[in-house]
């Protein structure tokens, strides 16, 4: 059979219709899929988000003060420990959610099932497939912040003093933190072998959390200068401090421009590293 | 100008720097509406070749064009015009059967309504309608494969790549899959490129095949042509009443092909296959007791070209 004969047999309209799908539409399609999966797994999302801060505030700001072992009033300016914890634990929730929302599904998708291929075949550049994951994780981070905040406000037995000094700052910090954590999740998810993804939490998330100025403002580390300097490599520090500046301005906090500069720089660096790592990982 | 659905030019892929090439200079052109088979032993480079053509593997050198679109320069556009069924089940395990199709359509820009409509149409066509609301993890291998094919064509590509589509399926599911592919080709003029190591299937269903090994195409053509050019000749086995009769027949049979003798049995290698039977009978004479003929097969061609040793 000749080429001509084959081509002639084609029904009209079947000859290649390479029709470009607008990237925004394909991107939106990916978001719709993620939103559906999130709705299906919403209870798991809530539990994952709420457990840590809920127990933390319950033990340290309800149980401890009640049994006379509270840290109340130890922070600068007589502000309660419960107040110190508000920006800190929101920072952790945002951060943890951002990492988990990308790294955990990615471990399954890249590992045994290779179902990442399903998303990779969407008609947009691979970098945008990766970026969609990060954007959606940032959205989950925002949701986590909204879920956690009332807990931090309502549970403590001590007075919690929060007044939003700057809404724009609050929103910018939460969004940047969500993106930063998403890119970090993308990097970890592509670098760590899928079977060892659990290690991320003990080796990365736990140290970042405990040394992330979550339970104390950064400036109060002055008595331990080496730690004060060392924690500057921890991105969570800037999230906690940024939220402190926005929500509890009475507490000592880093200057806002420094916080924003650090967040933007780290986010950009992680965006570059993680996207490169993702592309390498999936296209061999 | 009408572009070919697939064109590969001097395609090379090396996974390890300085290591052996998984794909080592492949040139290939597939025509419209063709069902084309890539055959080869494990590790021959079939999956890598398909991976490059479907934008999922970055080539080290060379060019891959799908419908005239360079898959490296514009993967997004290439992806819009091709469909792929990968070797492993890559269905979205977090979603239902129906959602797998709906979201796929949405990735390709369909509105909510259009995507739902297309998904229902495909569920009907692929006889999955009653399983639509189940999670994909509940599907058997055959059904999952059918859903993967449905997903691959959901956005109406003009060429579909299938990597070992029938591996691990029971005979019924395999047959059903071939029927679906034939149907799609007939109705939508789809071009199909698949890899397989089931040679009988390739021989039966593919219009053209390329046998590839160590990253190179060894031969390419219709199964019939390959058998004629590269296969063993047909072997006629003739049994005689006694040794003496066989010995007498040897001289006469030599005119028809090379002859081996083993006791009262002669083996004649002939290019003519079944058409040679009358001449064989004639030359064998009255002492002939039985005759059997082994036609050449694509498998002979495959083994002759790729050798017998086991791979990986």
Radius of gyration of chain B: 24 Å
Largest sheet of chain A: none
Count of DSSP H/I helices of chain B: 11
Q: What is the count of β-strands of chain B?
A: 14
Mean pLDDT of chain B: 88
Share in β-strands of chain B: 25-35%
> What's the tally of helices of chain A?
11
Mean of all residue-level pLDDT scores of chain A: 87
How are helices and strands ordered from N to C of chain B? EEEHEEHEHHHEHEHEEHEHEEHEH
Q: Cα-atom Rg of chain A, whole angstroms? A: 23 Å
Annotation, overall tally of beta strands of chain A: 0
State the secondary-structure class of chain A: mainly alpha
- Terminal CA distance of chain A: 38 Å
* Uncertain residue segments of chain B: none
Descriptive tags:
heterodimer, A: 284 residues, mainly alpha, 11 helices, disordered N terminus, B: 312 residues, alpha/beta, four-stranded antiparallel beta sheet, 14 strands
Topology:
The complex is a heterodimer of chains A (284) and B (312).
Chain A: H1 3-9, H2 23-40, H3 42-66, H4 81-110, H5 116-120, H6 126-154, H7 167-191, H8 197-210, H9 225-230, H10 235-247, H11 256-283
Helix pairs in contact in A: 2-6, 3-4, 3-6, 4-6, 4-7, 4-10, 6-7, 6-11, 7-10, 7-11, 10-11
Chain B: E1 6-13, E2 23-30, E3 35-39, H1 46-53, E4 61-66, E5 69-70, H2 75-81, E6 82-85, H3 97-107, H4 112-125, H5 141-153, E7 159-163, H6 171-188, E8 191-196, H7 199-205, E9 208-213, E10 216-221, H8 223-230, E11 234-240, H9 243-253, E12 258-262, E13 265-270, H10 277-284, E14 288-294, H11 298-306
Parallel strand pairs in B: 3-8, 3-9, 6-7, 7-8
Antiparallel strand pairs in B: 1-2, 1-4, 4-5, 9-10, 11-13, 11-14, 12-13
């Amino acid at each position: 059979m000749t080429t001509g004969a084959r081509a002639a047999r084609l029904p009209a309209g079947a000859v290649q219709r390479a029709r470009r799908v607008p990237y925004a539409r394909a991107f939106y399609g990916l978001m719709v899929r993620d939103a559906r999966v999130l709705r299906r797994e919403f209870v798991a999302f809530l539990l994952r988000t709420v457990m840590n801060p809920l127990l933390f505030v319950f033990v340290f700001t309800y149980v401890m003060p009640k049994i006379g072992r509270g840290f109340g009033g130890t922070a600068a300016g007589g502000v309660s420990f419960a107040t110190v914890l508000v920006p800190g634990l929101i920072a952790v929730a945002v951060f943890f959610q951002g990492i988990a929302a990308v790294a955990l599904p990615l471990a399954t998708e890249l590992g045994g099932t290779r179902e990442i291929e399903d998303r990779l075949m969407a008609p947009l550049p691979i970098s945008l497939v990766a970026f969609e994951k990060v954007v959606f994780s940032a959205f989950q981070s925002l949701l986590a912040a909204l879920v956690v905040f009332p807990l931090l406000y309502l549970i403590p037995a001590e007075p919690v003093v929060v007044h939003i000094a700057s809404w724009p700052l609050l929103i910018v910090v939460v969004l940047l933190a969500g993106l930063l954590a998403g890119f970090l999740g993308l990097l970890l998810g592509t670098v760590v072998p899928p079977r060892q993804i659990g290690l991320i939490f003990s080796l990365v998330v736990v140290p970042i959390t405990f040394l992330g100025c979550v339970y104390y403002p950064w400036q109060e580390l002055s008595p331990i200068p080496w730690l004060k300097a060392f924690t500057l490599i921890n991105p969570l520090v800037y999230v906690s401090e940024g939220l402190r500046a926005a929500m509890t301005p009475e507490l000592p906090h880093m200057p806002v421009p420094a916080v924003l500069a650090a967040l933007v720089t780290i986010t950009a660096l992680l965006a570059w590293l993680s996207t490169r790592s993702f592309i390498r990982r999936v296209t061999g | 100008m009408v572009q070919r659905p697939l064109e590969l030019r001097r395609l090379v892929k090396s996974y390890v720097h300085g290591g052996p090439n998984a794909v080592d200079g492949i040139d290939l052109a597939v025509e419209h509406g063709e069902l084309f088979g890539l055959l080869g032993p494990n590790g021959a480079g079939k999956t890598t070749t398909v991976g490059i053509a479907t934008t999922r593997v970055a080539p080290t050198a060379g060019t891959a064009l799908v419908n005239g679109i360079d898959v490296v320069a514009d993967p997004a556009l290439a992806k819009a015009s091709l469909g792929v069924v990968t070797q492993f089940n890559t269905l979205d395990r977090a979603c239902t059967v129906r959602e797998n199709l709906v979201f796929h359509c949405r990735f390709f820009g369909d509105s909510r309504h259009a995507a739902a409509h297309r998904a229902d149409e495909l569920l009907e066509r692929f006889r999955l309608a009653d399983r639509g609301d189940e999670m994909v993890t509940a599907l058997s291998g055959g059904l999952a494969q059918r859903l993967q094919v449905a997903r691959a064509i959901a956005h109406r590509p003009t060429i579909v790549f299938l990597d070992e589509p029938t591996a691990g399926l029971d005979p019924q599911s395999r047959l059903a899959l071939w029927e679906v592919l034939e149907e799609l080709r007939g109705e939508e003029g789809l071009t199909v490129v698949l890899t397989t190591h089931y040679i009988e299937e390739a021989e039966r269903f593919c219009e053209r095949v390329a046998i590839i090994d160590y990253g190179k195409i060894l031969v390419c053509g219709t199964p019939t042509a390959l058998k004629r050019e590269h296969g063993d000749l047909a072997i006629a086995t003739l049994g005689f009443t006694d040794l003496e009769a066989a010995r007498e027949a040897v001289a006469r049979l030599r005119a028809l092909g090379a002859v081996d003798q083993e006791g009262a049995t002669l083996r004649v290698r002939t290019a003519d296959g079944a058409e040679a039977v009358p001449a064989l009978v004639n030359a064998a004479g009255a002492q002939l007791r039985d005759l059997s003929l082994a036609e050449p097969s694509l498998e002979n061609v495959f083994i002759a070209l790729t050798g017998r040793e086991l791979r990986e």
